[in-house]
Amino acid sequence: MKLNDNTIAGSAACKTTEEYVRDLAELLPLQGPITAFAFLNPLQAMEDQPFIEAISQVKDLFGCEPFLPAETYRAKLATGRITVADLREILHEETVDSGDAQVAGLVSKNDLRMSMLQHSINPGTENELQWVLAETDALLHFHGNASHTAREQLISSTRHWAVDCCQNGSGANRASDPWRRLVEKTLSDCRLTPRTPPDDPRWEAMCLTLIWEITRVRMADAPPLSELATPVRHRDLLLEVSTEDSDSLVQEVLVPFCAAFLDQGYAHWRLPNRDEGFFRAFLMLMSKGGHFSRRWLQPLRHESGRLLDSGLTPIESLEESLELLGVTAQEKEMFLLKSLLALRGFAGMIWQTETRPDRVFLGSEPGTLVEFLAVQLILERFSLRAIARRSLQFQGNLDELRRELRTRLPKHRVKASNDQRAYPVLLLAQFHGWSPQTLAELSPQQWRELLNAVEEFSEFELRRVFHLAYERHLQRRALDAISARASLPLVRPVTPKLQVITCIDAREESYRRYLEEVEPDVETFAHAGFFCVPMYFRGAADAQFATLCPVVMKPQHWIVEDVVHSLADSHRHRAMARRWLGAATHSFNTGTRGSMTGALLTGILGPLFTAPLVGRILFPRLTARINRVMRGMMAPPPITRLRLERPEGTPPSPTDDGIGFTLSEMVNMGEMLLRDIGLTKSFAPLVAFLGHGSNCLNNPHESAYHCGACSGGVGSPNARALAAILNDRRVRARLAQRGLEIPDETHFLGGRHNTATEAVTFFDLELLPTSHIREFRAALDVFGRVAARNAHERCRRFESAPLDMSPEEALQHAEDRSEDLSQTRPEYGNCTNAMCFVGRRSRVRGLFLDRRAFLMSYDEAQDTPDN
Questions:
Q1: What is the pLDDT of residues 288-313, one digit of tens each?
Q2: Where are the beta strands (DSSP E) in 269-338?
Q3: How many Cα atoms occupy the beta-carbon half-sphere of 255 within 13 Å?
Q4: 686: part of which helix (H) or strand (E)?
Q5: CB atoms within 10 A of CB 467
Q6: What DSSP element (H or E) covers 22?
Q7: For the residues 338-352, what does the mean pLDDT come to?
Q8: Spatial CB neighbours of 749, under 8 Å, sequence gap ≥ 6
Q9: Which of 9, 274, 433, 522 has the highest CB neighbour count under 10 A?
Q10: CB environment 655-689: b (16+ within 10 A), e (fewer)
Q11: Is 745 helix (H, G, I), strand (E, B) or coil?
Q12: Could you tell me the CA-to-CA distances from 597 to 303, 347, 601, 605, 610 in Å, in that order?
């Protein structure tokens, strides 16, 4: 979506406030709960726009920078990560017809932009600029990036002009007459005469001072100054006038309340009346009275009681606040948007729990975001009134506050002062050798043309070109490498011994590369890590279903893991032990928060509980082994089955009868996956689907290291489910009818690749045919060697790892990091993706892509008119 004056004016008459809030919520963050944290596109609401158009709005909407700082790009330019050729290529593509046109008769448009790209001409703020001019040698010596030729040219032309002005101030050189007094004054200030030798360094100061003063005078011929937009929110105006932030007062109250409302059962005390909804729970809490330590909040008790007694709904309260704040119909959309984005983290989480309650234990009722905004504006009214009275002695109504604040703003609120606009010309003159006389003799039209050319290539445009060149350099290197690889014979095992299908995740790029390197008869494929099996999954020891599919999908099926019947008694005893331990732990944690019980428990059991902590710090591997043994004693029995099938005609549901897929659905999912990746013939005896997850001891965002295609969950249940589906003889028979024949000797395995420790775990091994045991052992040997090599490649990015370690030492180091309490990011590599390759593996097999590419298997030969 895109907001502008036309859309606001056109929609103001046809949308209700509730519709506004619902539409604007698209711009809120889409992150789910911390237990299912997945990386998402922060500009998802703007996907209908070109990328540059969308990114140009982020500073105004979110207060974020659209690109890296210009100096960061220039550092990349200095190291060769960006080249001058890259920049010129981008500029040429964008200005094919106008790039060589002269700007004010001084320089071509593209050469001017290249100077601005290569050299910083940003004057900074007005105060920063004045400090630079007063405290540095900016007007005494040429810029360090000015060439020797330009320096000599400027000094020579300035000296000749000074002689002409002094000797021929009237008559022969009339063009210099308006500037003669300035030249003479500057000569005097610099203690120079026309006879001073040209090698005297004071000529530099003379030249620079003249350029600076001339540019300042010529600003009278400049285009009009761009004025800053007037904020629509009272808070923004008040902050600009008084430097006091009303949002800070609001958020002191709203943040802890939102945290309590969104609690998923972890907090010691539950929010009172949460079941009443966000709006009423807040009012009921505030109406209790007591002592408000913040004076501005004291009237809130009476207001909360009034709203409760009147029976106003949240939307009516929101409308009332908008009216009291004087927000007109034309301003409503922008005002609501800015208000929502003021605390967008909590607003986004509330919106997620409202629209996707299936992803959390305690969801929010429909309309909760409106209730949040209603409460926010109630608090905003009181905070604005308190600050306006205290800082501005404003006693009027809130609907008059913005009018009063606008009268107190500076009359001319401009984006840049005349000096800030003149300073870039001072620097560009040094880079291009524009003499003071040349600048003085420009016509008003030429001066406006020069200023327009400089200001059109704004900071945003400059960084945009830098970023495109940055990406172009990577694109060229990647495509050159892929093209060079494509010129070689295509490599694919004729009779593969093992086929491995992983997630497209960039971390699997190196893993697949080493699989094929260690054993050339291995063939790898990749697909999004939910493997075409979207589902809600509940493990044997889980209390709730987890969503295992991309965030943009909402599963329609539920899958449950059951312990086999022969181990049911063991499972029941272990479940009872887990419940007992959980209840005891909860009682202990609750007791430690009491005054008497806390002191008693801490004194008696405190020393005992320090042992695990000390062990974690001093002996992390040993402590991890002990913990695994203890957890294993209470974990579900090792032999389980997925409840995958439900009868045809039974609607899916989380109840017993509705759990699973129908046979037709299983056939469709299996066919879709195999055809998507191009695996329709030449099946290996063993085919492994590897979902991925990650172990992390001390990072609350651990789920961010899991599978993004599984909404921040571990993808192994999906892999296990698909393997079981494709092992089903009925599924294979129906696939054969559709032209996809799977040999009887092919067996599918589901597993998990731990990207932190490189360990691979397989499921349902008790169902592995005895005829495949030899192949499975050979596969385990391959996975073991691959783990060491992959860890060795990863360790080069770890400051904790020496560069001379062996692959075996690297593997142990990677395992240690996952159990180290001090390592909050044990992988430190789930952020390097820069490209996505979609195609057959044979095109890039053996190519080193440095864990920077998503690899999606695709064979265009499998496309059909219907798919």
A1: 875 567 888 889 999 999 999 999 99
A2: none
A3: 10
A4: strand 686-693
A5: 18
A6: helix 17-24
A7: 95
A8: 686, 687, 688, 689, 723, 762, 763, 764, 765, 768, 776
A9: 522
A10: eeeebbbbbebbbbbbbebbbbbbbbeebbbbbbb
A11: coil
A12: 40, 38, 6, 11, 19
Using an 8 Å Cβ cutoff, are 335 and 233 in contact?
A: yes
Smallest Cα–Cα separation from 67: which of 475, 477, 469, 506? 469
Q: Tell me the C-alpha distance between 466 and 459, whole Å.
A: 11
DSSP, collapsed to helix, strand or coil, labels residue 525 as strand
**Alpha-carbon Rg for the chain in angstroms:** 34
- The helix or strand, by DSSP H or E, that contains position 370, with its residue range, turns out to be helix 368-392
* CA dist 195 → 9, 168, 199, 373, 580 (Å): 68, 15, 11, 74, 99
- Phi and psi at residue 625, to the nearest 5°: -65, -45
Residues in the chain: 867
Q: What's the sign of the alpha-carbon dihedral 463, 469, 472, 474?
A: negative
Q: What is the DSSP letter of 548?
A: E
Q: Give the separation between CA 777 and CA 519, rounded to whole angstroms.
A: 14
* Residue 867 pLDDT level (bands cut at 50, 70, 90): low
Residue 1 confidence (pLDDT): 55
> Which pLDDT score is estimated for 276?
95
Is pTM beyond 0.90 here?
A: no
CA distances from 72 to 69, 82, 110, 462 (A): 5, 11, 22, 12
Burial grade of 584 (CB within 10 A; 0-12, 13-18, 19 or more): exposed
Q: What is the pLDDT of residue 33?
A: 82
Q: Which residues contact 224 (CB under 8 A, 6 or more apart)?
A: none
Residue 467 · residue 67 · CB < 8 Å: yes
CA–CA separation, 165 and 154 (whole Å) = 16
Whether 641 contacts 727, CB under 8 Å = no
Q: Residue 127: phi, psi to the nearest 5?
A: -65, -40
Mean pLDDT (the chain) is 90
DSSP-derived letter for residue 139 is T
Bridge partners of 830, per DSSP, are none
Say how far apart CA 159 and CA 193 lie, in whole Å: 9
Residue in this structure with the two tokens 């893991």, named with its chain if needed: 561
| Structure tokens that stand for 74 in this block | 């220039």
Write out 591-646 in H/E/C secondary structure. Answer: HHCCHHHHHHHHHHHHHHHHHHHHHHHHCHHHHHHHHHHHHHHHCCCCCEEEECEC
At position 672, the amino acid (one-letter code) is M
Q: How far apart, in whole angstroms, are the C-alpha atoms of residue 136 and residue 586? A: 64
Instruction: Name the pairing type of β-strands 522-527 and 760-762.
Output: unpaired
Neighbours of 419 (CB within 10 A): 17
CA contacts within 13 A on the Cβ side of 71: 3
Q: Which residues lie below 8 Å from residue 172, measured CB to CB, with a gap of 6+?
A: none
673 touches 722 (CB < 8 A)? yes
Reported as a pLDDT band with limits 50, 70 and 90, residue 172 is very low
Contact by Cβ (8 Å): 687, 501: yes
* Better-scored residue on pLDDT, 125 or 37: 125
**Ramachandran class of 807: left when φ > 0, alpha when ψ lies in -120 to 50, beta otherwise:** alpha
The 10s digit of each residue's pLDDT in 692-728 is 999 888 888 888 899 999 999 999 999 999 999 999 9
